[in-house]
What does this fold into?
Amino acid sequence: MVSGESKVSSELSPWPVSRLSLTLKEWIERLGVLWIEGELSQIKFGPTNMFGEIRDLQQENSVSIHAWSLGKIPVDLKQGDRVVALIKPAFWPKGGKLTMQVLEMRKVGLGELLERIERLRATLAAEGLTDPSKKKPLPFLPSCIGLITGKDSDAEKDVLKNAKLRWPNVEFKVVNTLVQGDKAAPEIISAMKQLDQDPEVDVIIVARGGGSFLDLVVFSDEELVRTAAKIQTPLVSAIGHENDRPVLDDVADLRASTPTDAAKRVVPDVTEQRAMLSQLTHRAFLRIATAVQNQSELISQLRSRPLMANPYGFIEKLDEETEREIIRLRNRFSQLLDVSALELSHLKAQVRSLSPQSTLERGYAVLLDSGGHVVTNPTKVTKGSKLTAKLAKGELPLTAD
It folds into this structure.
């Protein structure tokens, strides 16, 4: 810093441009080295160096790059290659230019992309975003379907054609987007959010008619698949590729093998439904007719029975049987009463014969001492004691001799 310059910029003590440039250089160089990923938009090789630009995979951002040594940089790199680079940010104060010094660079190969995709797949599974129990059910008969696909693509035509053939009244809201390349993910994400917020849309189909692994890698973009898992509207993935299954298939509520398959699984076939309805109606008619026939036969059987032919005769017969049973019960009850009366008379006679009074009436007497106690032993009585002899009728005073 030049002597006399203020450490703090203000209206009264502004920095010179050189001071600003040097400060920016210091801040940027503090970042150190960084790994970045992007796409080569320009590249030019010299005998011992390289210059070019690398741009963001999704946004319209790019930075200048240069390398003073080609030792760790493939010489077959070309415009459009997806690369990972170890860079050191540098700021040139004189020109006010920001550039990135490339220390190492390599192409992003299929193996690395596959490894990233599998790591993402495992992460989503651990978070429960691919759990089958959390899949949202599709509506039986959607009135409006949201379709995300490429403009005028075969996938768009297949879905619309097959859905209309199955149910002519079904409505579509189509959002055309890029379906491959680095700029496709933001467009598809925006389309998902747009259709999810539309109250008329019952289900969303994301469709593409297959392609190579690199063509379909956008459908394994982390932000895209997390958006698909977050939306509230049921989502169908119809990418149309069996071998290289994109991650979108895992988080979608339904995976269809092709766009045509998606149309068939989302929209019921009106012809099939009418045939099914006709079949169910016929089955119901047969069941009702069978039930009526069975009841009619049962009524005929009941009418043919003697009871139904002469119900009053049956009642008269029961009345006669009841009367006979009453008479029989009365006679039986009378016999039981007579037997019980005879047994009671015998019991009374036995009780009388065993009573003390009956003993006295046969001429016996009960001897009582002066205290009224029964005398059973002569040794208990002294001479001259006053005794009483209790007879059947009255008492007789006695004196012991």
Remarks:
- Residues 271-304 form one domain.
- The chain is about 40% helix and 20% strand.
- The two ends are 164 Å apart (CA to CA).
